[in-house]
Amino acid sequence: MQISIQVPEFILGENTVLDTPEYLKRLEIKRPLLVTDQGLVRAGHVARLMDAFGVGGAPACFDLTRENPTANCVDLATQIYLQQGCDGIVALGGGSVIDTAKLTAVTSTHGGSASDYLGQSDKITNLASPIVAIPTTAGTGSEASSAAGIHPSGREISRGVNSRFVVPRLAICDPSLMATLPSRLTAATGLDALSHCIEGYLARGDHPIIDLLALQGIRLIKSNLSKAVDDNDPQARAELMLAAFYGGLAIGKGLGAAHAIAISCGDQDLHHGVLSALGLVAILDSIEHHEGERCRAIKDALDLDRGASLSEYIRATLVSFGLPRSLSQAGYRLADFRVLAQTCEASYFNKTSRVRFRFADFESMLQKIS
Length: 370
What we know:
Layout: E1 9-12, H1 20-26, E2 32-35, H2 38-43, H3 45-52, E3 60-62, H4 71-83, E4 88-93, H5 95-110, E5 131-135, E6 147-150, E7 159-162, E8 170-173, H6 183-202, H7 208-231, H8 234-251, H9 257-264, H10 272-288, H11 292-301, H12 310-320, H13 327-330, H14 337-346, H15 348-351, H16 359-369
Helix pairs in contact: 4-5, 6-7, 6-8, 6-10, 7-8, 9-10, 9-14, 10-12, 10-16, 14-16
């Protein structure tokens, strides 16, 4: 099994966001579209970036990205891109913003609407607009990955694209942008990064570099998440951003059943990081029956005893940060348990796992977190 990973240029440091105009010049992007959201407008980060461009140099802006982004967000951003004659995209935000930017990079150059490309990555070519990603959370790792998930509508589960042509050219990781993040969101996004590192390490195939980085990402999150949540520690934020970047690279190797669960439950506007962590609670002890050696390596990275339960460790971590320990606590309204298990089994992410779970497995695992 051959695995190819494309890695963006990576910059990590306090206040590096202020150097964005210079990086754009180097990439020969003259008229960027800034894709962001209203939360970052209110936090002052959009104005801070705009000011860095100087008088008369501010980019065009789309600031209406939703927390769980929809195809409509992409289509609206594309309209602005075309109207303003843009030639590149700057994504300032979390995974929702960066994923919106990725698909906008496609629709703005390939024509059509976002829905034309969801699940049809083969349509994407090297014509996609160049992207500079500036993450404001340490979570999805979208700044490092070739994947993007977009909801066709607000009440449907996300569908994805995966193409090397939407990997950002540059990732500017500035820990100062996380300083205004609510502690609960810092925790939820950090657990999302943890899910990427764990599931990337447990995905099919072997990639010595990605496996090494995934385990290091797990160690970094273990050592720094509480410091970032409880103390808003700048160095801890920087370490989490590095871990999230590693997790984004691990996505290129594949994910697994935890994400099959998270995506299948993603039709009710719940936070993806919480759903991903609950997915880990559901699946990790079952995975260990098949992949004991790899699970032991994960336990070592988390500084756990060999006999500890990985599922219960993740559940205890959720509780320690005041996050839901079950789908019902998260507010998920389960209409039909069997349909959910069938959706999980059919998920693309179940197919990239080292352990391919069946319908009955998902029924049992979902019971653990219902």
